[in-house]
Predict the structure.
Amino acid sequence: MPKDFNAETYVVDGNLADTLTWLCHHQDCFDSFQYDAITQELKVHHANGADIIRVGMFLNAKYVVLITSL
């Protein structure tokens, strides 16, 4: 089943490229992101602060603010 990168919600899986693609489709809900190749951590900076994005997290781009949860 193909992923809908335009959907307002997304569940992070082990595929970093898909997560980055979803984030790029929702650039209005965060300020920036950075990836540390050594620790393999993706950090997203948004209006509510910054979150390290991990597998299994639920991302929500509703209301033009990135909301993350486990």
